[in-house]
């Protein structure tokens, strides 16, 4: 009887100790970063950088297509400011929900609130949700939490993120 009890205790301790040493999966890094991106938006290919310093804000700087190279779009949750060729224009009304800068910002805001709701896998974490009328799927690296991709199928929008740097 005593040997059986000792065996059960050893098994329980082994399971507990092995689960403590398991690698932790990082939540997605949805704020305080900048990175490069490549996006497909319908038939349009966009490339450039993303900067996100706080929840509710996002800045896209475009390098592709050539006709938009140098354009910067900043979203603060309510309005958009466009800077291009030395001119700055603040849009008088809220952007449509399908605007690239707004889609990225709002999905990252949503994922930030629900970062524990992801599906974890060896190669990363996947978060799904709905923002307005659009469902999304966000993937991040399992170890660092850096963003890998975002898909918003109903808006014909997808983004790959790379060269991510954290902002202190």
Account of the 3D structure:
This protein is of the alpha+beta class. The protein is 20% helix and 43% strand. It contains two helices and eleven strands. It has an eleven-stranded antiparallel sheet with strand order 6-5-4-3-2-1-11-10-9-8-7. Strand 3 and strand 4 form a beta hairpin.
How would you summarize the topology of this molecule?
Blueprint: H1 2-20, E1 33-41, E2 44-52, E3 58-64, E4 72-75, E5 80-84, E6 87-90, H2 100-113, E7 119-121, E8 124-131, E9 134-140, E10 147-152, E11 157-166
Antiparallel strand pairs: 1-2, 1-11, 2-3, 3-4, 4-5, 5-6, 7-8, 8-9, 9-10, 10-11
Tell me the overall shape.
Answer: globular
Helix content: 10-25%
How much of the sequence is in beta strands? 35-45%
Overall pLDDT confidence: 83
Using only CA atoms, what is the Rg? 21 Å
- Main sheet overview: 11 strands, antiparallel
**Discrete helix count:** 2
| Overall number of strands | 11
**Structural class based on helices, strands and sheet pairing:** alpha+beta
In spatial order, strands of the major sheet run 6-5-4-3-2-1-11-10-9-8-7
Oligomer: single chain
Order of helices and strands: HEEEEEEHEEEEE
Which key terms come to mind for this protein?
globular; 20% helix; 168 residues; 2 helices; alpha+beta; eleven-stranded antiparallel β-sheet
Summarize the entry for a quick read:
20% of the residues lie in helices and 43% in strands.
């Amino acid at each position: 009887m005593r040997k059986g009890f000792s065996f059960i205790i050893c098994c329980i301790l082994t399971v507990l100790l092995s689960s403590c040493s398991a690698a932790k999966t990082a939540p997605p890094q949805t704020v305080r970063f900048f990175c490069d991106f490549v996006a497909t938006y319908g038939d349009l290919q966009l490339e450039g950088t993303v900067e996100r310093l706080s929840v509710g804000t996002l800045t896209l700087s475009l390098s592709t297509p050539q006709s938009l190279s140098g354009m910067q779009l900043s979203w603060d949750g309510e309005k958009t400011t466009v800077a291009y060729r030395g001119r700055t224009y603040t849009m008088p009304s809220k952007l449509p929900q399908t605007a690239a800068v707004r889609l990225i910002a709002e999905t990252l805001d949503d994922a930030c609130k629900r970062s524990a709701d992801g599906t974890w896998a060896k190669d990363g974490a996947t978060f799904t949700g709905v923002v307005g009328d659009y469902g999304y799927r966000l993937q991040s690296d399992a170890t660092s939490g850096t963003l890998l991709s975002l898909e918003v199928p109903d808006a014909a929008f997808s983004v790959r993120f790379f060269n991510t740097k954290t902002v202190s």
